[in-house]
């Protein structure tokens, strides 16, 4: 924390507050460009650009950690599938049929999903507070997916896009838990570059199928700008800023700022996408955040 105090002032706040803003932009731009970019093409293009942009930062770590990558190769492959190949592909697929606001609200469930999956697969014990938090947040997710309608709940009428995005959040939670399989000496920036390089051939057959089915990108200055933004800002800059935030302020404080994502998202969605905000959005977010706070009491 000494370094954090030395950095101090607005610079530290910027490092903490910018990553969730950049990640919110990912949802906004993906939703806005859904008519130009099919989901797999957007995911593939994003990671291709991100790999090129990340290499200057990752190259020293790639050379140093090459023996570790060989040692943990199958672990890297196993984590690449949910965390890099599947996560954003599912998000972009879901955003074809649901709002960016809903997507970002569902993103807030990740801390609770990590707790739940940690209990299932790692034998982590959950306190009563954590269990209560999971139940409350699950209710919040249901409110968002069902749009606050008891009639939809009774008819089991779920929004397909919301369910797809929720599946993406499960994939990311699995990826986050799986990072424990790697010792601290494996640099995370270099590891991300390796995973992106592996994810591209994983996505290639799905991209070929998407193109063969007639879903091709519509090239224009606006669509190219959207792809470049997604490939650089939320993919590389947010990651670099976030790792810096963790170094300066610690993981707990940096993690708290992720809860700004749906706040940013609601404002940006209303401003740029003209998505209406409903009472169920506020109720769902309130329940999800309450669940996170309750679960935190059980640490």
From TrEMBL:
Domain EamA, first and last residues per copy: 16-145, 160-295
Membrane topology: Multi-pass membrane protein
Organism expressing this protein natively: Rhodobacter maris
Keywords, in A-Z order: Membrane, Transmembrane, Transmembrane helix
Pfam name, any one: EamA
Protein name, UniProt field: Drug/metabolite transporter (DMT)-like permease
A GO CC term attached to the entry: membrane
Family as reported in the entry's similarity comment: Belongs to the EamA transporter family.
Location in or out of the cell: Membrane
């Amino acid at each position: 924390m000494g370094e954090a105090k030395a950095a101090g002032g607005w610079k530290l706040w910027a490092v903490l507050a910018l990553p969730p803003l950049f990640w919110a932009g990912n949802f906004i731009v993906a939703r806005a460009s859904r008519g130009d970019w099919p989901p797999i093409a957007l995911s593939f293009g994003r990671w291709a650009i991100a790999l090129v942009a990340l290499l200057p930062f990752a190259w020293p770590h790639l050379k140093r950690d090459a023996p570790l990558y060989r040692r943990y190769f199958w672990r890297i492959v196993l984590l690449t599938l949910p965390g890099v190949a599947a996560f954003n592909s599912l998000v972009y697929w879901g955003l074809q049929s649901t709002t960016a606001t809903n997507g970002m609200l569902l993103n807030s469930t990740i801390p609770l999903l990590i707790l739940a999956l940690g209990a299932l697969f790692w034998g982590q014990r959950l306190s009563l507070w954590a269990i209560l938090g999971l139940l409350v947040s699950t209710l919040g997710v249901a409110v968002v997916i069902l749009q606050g309608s008891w009639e939809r709940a009774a008819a089991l009428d779920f929004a397909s896009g919301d369910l797809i995005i929720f599946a993406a959040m499960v994939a990311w939670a699995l990826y986050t838990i799986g990072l424990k399989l790697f010792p601290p000496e494996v640099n995370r920036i270099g590891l991300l570059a390796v995973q992106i390089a592996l994810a591209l051939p994983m996505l290639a057959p799905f991209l070929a199928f998407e193109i063969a089915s007639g879903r091709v990108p519509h090239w224009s200055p606006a669509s190219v700008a959207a792809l470049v933004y997604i490939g650089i800002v939320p993919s590389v800059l947010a990651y670099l800023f976030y790792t810096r935030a963790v170094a300066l302020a610690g993981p707990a404080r940096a993690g708290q700022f992720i809860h700004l994502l749906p706040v940013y998202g609601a404002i940006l969605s209303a401003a740029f996408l003209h998505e209406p905000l409903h009472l169920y959005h506020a109720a769902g977010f309130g329940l999800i955040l309450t669940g996170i706070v309750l679960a935190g009491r059980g640490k």
